[in-house]
Amino acid sequence: DGGITQSPKYLFRKEGQNVTLSCEQNLNHDAMYWYRQDPGQGLRLIYYSQIVNDFQKGDIAEGYSVSREKKESFPLTVTSAQKNPTAFYLCASHGGQHNSPLHFGNGTRLTVT
Amino acid sequence: GDSVTQMEGPVTLSEEAFLTINCTYTATGYPSLFWYVQYPGEGLQLLLKATKADDKGSNKGFEATYRKETTSFHLEKGSVQVSDSAVYFCALSDQSYGKLTFGQGTILTVHP
């Protein structure tokens, strides 16, 4: 079955450590996205990539970095510069057709203490 | 910039009650409108969509009509079930690609 796999489901880190969240898709989608979800705030766009080896900042990119070396993979690194990293992180992909929906993974819940 | 405003939650209903979740939007162009649903511990799934004014999206008993004159896309269901308990997000896309602007989400709890 085609879909988006995010791993791990739960992640715990100490403050000051960088951490990388994995996102893999087998939908053959060109575009991939990272969103952050906080209670009562909906989803906010961190980074997105419309094609391999290219990506753009979203609305809240500070303290995050990404890479897009392969079409299937779009890992997100939460750096120590991110002031409030504890959140639920969602990866999504899009097939490129006008008005087609985003496909989401099941998310990674990151807790930093 | 674009924005989406959803009714304040949480919403608590008894089974078989009528559901309305209000959604209004601000956009400079002619956006497509979406409702997504998130079940506990999962990502978001597309529930329904509408791409132009007066379109009605429908799925699993849920409906929403794109009202350009009131810039609204309210979600309705005639008879909710316990299994409808989830978080519902209204969203818009003002571009051809998948960059969406989301509302803050509305938590729905349905009791037997």
Beta fraction of the residues of chain B?
over 45%
Helix tally of chain A?
A: 0
Question: Which percent band covers the strand fraction of chain A?
Answer: over 45%
- Could you name the ranges of chain B where pLDDT drops below 50 across 5 or more consecutive residues? none
Low-confidence stretches of chain A: none
Q: Strand-and-helix sequence of chain A, N→C?
A: EEEEEEEEEEE
Mean pLDDT of chain A: 92
Count the E strands of chain B. Answer: 12
Helix/strand-derived category of chain B reads mainly beta
Output the radius of gyration of chain B: 13 Å
Give the CA-based shape of chain B: globular
What is the overall pLDDT average of chain B?
A: 92
Radius of gyration over C-alpha positions of chain A, nearest whole angstrom: 13 Å
Q: Span between N and C termini of chain A?
A: 36 Å
Structural class of chain A: mainly beta
- Give the helix level of chain A as a range of percent: under 10%
Residue share in helix of chain B: under 10%
Discrete helix count of chain B: 0
Descriptive keywords:
heterodimer, A: 113 residues, mainly beta, 7-stranded mixed sheet, 4-stranded antiparallel sheet, 11 strands, globular, B: 112 residues, 6-stranded mixed sheet, 12 strands
